Amino acid sequence: MTAPIRVSVTGAAGNIGYALLFRLAAGDCYGKDQPIILQLLEIAPGMKALEGVVMELLDSAFPLLHGVEISDDPNKAFSGINQAFLVGSRPRTKDMNRADLISANGPIFTGQGRALNDNAADDVRVIVVGNPCNTNALIAAHSAPGIPKDRFHAMTRLDENRAKAQLAKKLSALPGEVSNLGIWGNHSDTMYPDFAHARVRGQAVTEQVGQDWLQGDFLKTVATRGKAIIEARGASSAASAASAAIDHMSTLWHGNAKGDFTSMGVWSEGQYGVPKGLIFSFPVTSGGGNWSIVEGLEHDEFAKAKIAATTQELLNERETVKDLLK
Ligand code: NAD
Ligand code: LMR
Q1: How far is the CA of 137 from the centre of ligand 1 (A)?
Q2: pLDDT tens, residue by residue, 269-317
Q3: Domain boundaries, the chain
Q4: Domain covering 5-154, topology
Q5: Is the CB–ligand 1 distance for residue 20 below 6 Å?
Q6: Given CA atoms 181, 183, 188, 189 in this order, what sign does their dihedral have?
Q7: How far is CA 54 from its chain centroid?
């Protein structure tokens, strides 16, 4: 019998948490032969609701679920964990940008970064979902000096999935027939979904769809999808966000298909001219808990301008939170 891994989810009684926990317990992330112990974090007012979620987890009788622990203390919730999903934080409302959440949510990630530093297992991997996720991941990484920076990720897989869905719809293909779609930069309206290298059924997208649509409606739909969902649902994306988080951590664990790549917000060391020390979404290949940025992708002037704009936005966010980056 494989030993269980310890997986922490923060904000576990929230909307994303409710969609995420059951997928994790069912083996959708680490595989149907990998037992799991869930260590769930909430703030005190959320603990009662979390107790109800735990009842439902137990009532589902998941064979792989070897334990569920709950706490409102990150030092307990992160004790010995191998994997962390940092979800807990405020979502925006329809009149806000994600960056408007920095002052409310940023400080959460100093305390949680320290708690990860002090309590997590040596092999810990961390995905930050809570917005603004790139800058929150940066704060967490700075607050955990004992954990290598490349272990902290921001989630842009939802943007990748959205872009694939739009391309599939346009070309009457299945989402699984879309490959090599990388998101560059920030999980915000400035992101660049890189259609220039994307392929549908193995053929370049740019040979199948006109630039007007790609640079226009496609890009705008992907970049503003979060807001469109908030306007329609009255609440931000939850099940699709949970699904993307599973996709991200599953790819990190199991690897991506040969010849393909995926999108992860990761620590920049200066690749593609992006300044060192930003959590920036790049196209990466991944597996076994590690990742590396895809090399040699060329950008035309349009792409260069988009990447410059999203880089500048992340630099501005970093400046805003500089007091949290100790
Ligand atoms: P929600 O309000 O439904 O749930 C958030 C939960 O977090 C609540 O239960 C709350 O009590 C808890 N929480 C708050 N502060 C906490 C803390 N310090 N420690 C532990 N738990 C805490 O929100 P949601 O819909 O689940 O969204 C959560 C976050 O994910 C938001 O910031 C949202 O913007 C973000 N999000 C990101 C993406 C992405 O693609 N990166 C997608 C969707 C949502
Ligand atoms: C999303 O992309 O759906 C999330 O980041 C939620 C939001 O605020 O847009």
Answers
A1: 14
A2: 999 999 999 999 999 999 999 999 999 999 999 999 999 999 999 999 9
A3: 5-154, 157-319
A4: Rossmann fold (3.40.50)
A5: no
A6: negative
A7: 24
